[in-house]
Amino acid sequence: MAQIWKLEQQTEIKSSPDRLFDIYKNKSHLMPKICPQNLQSVQVLDGDGRSVGSVRLWTYIMGRPVIAKDKIGAVDEENRSITFDLIGGEVTKYYSSFKATLQATSREGKNWAKWTLEFEKLNEQVPTPHSHMEFLLNGAKEIDAYLLNA
User: Fold this and answer.
1) Which one, of 112, 113, 117, 60, lies nearest residue 89 by Cα?
2) Beta bridge partners of 10
């Protein structure tokens, strides 16, 4: 029986959770300009690129240029949460399912970007995607810095 694994990690942000969530939900086209050393392009393949069911193609750098095709699986405006189901690209060579959820929150006087990865490895030799988590957390930090200077 397949096992679903889960990784969760958060980073403190200085910008408002609303603004961070807005970039991920509504303005992903700005991300290559915000994070040019890590993200080369974002293309909308289906839908509007912002709502559930939209499909996008990302070209990003993880040591070398790689691609990922995602489908927006869920959006929760009230909780500032968005879920991306990876449906193609590099990640699908190693994981039979891979889902990334961002939640931007305020708690105890601080603002947070929390990433949750849920994944199923194709086999036991596949590593836990700590590098993907680090990539996502670093991206949130870069977007936070951009928002503070905008």
Assistant:
1) 60
2) 114
The two three-digit tokens of residue 48, written as one number: 């509007």
- Give one DSSP letter per residue of 56-110, joined into a string: EEEEEESSSEEEEEEEEEEEETTTTEEEEEEEEEGGGGTEEEEEEEEEEEEETTE
Lookup: tokens for 43: 């293309």
Q: Which amino acid is at 88?
A: G
Residue holding tokens 């305020």? Answer: 106
In this predicted model, what pLDDT tens digit does every residue of 43-89 receive, in sequence order?
999 999 999 999 999 999 988 999 999 999 999 999 999 999 999 99
- The radius of gyration computed from the CA coordinates of the chain, to the nearest angstrom, equals 15
CA dihedral 4, 22, 35, 109 (to 10 degrees): -80
Contact (CB, 8 A) for 33 and 139: no
Beta strands 5-13 and 39-46, pairing class: unpaired
Q: Is 53 helix (H, G, I), strand (E, B) or coil?
A: coil
Please state the pTM of the whole predicted model.
0.95
1: confidence class by pLDDT, cuts 50, 70, 90: low
Segment 101-113, tens digit of pLDDT: 999 999 999 999 9
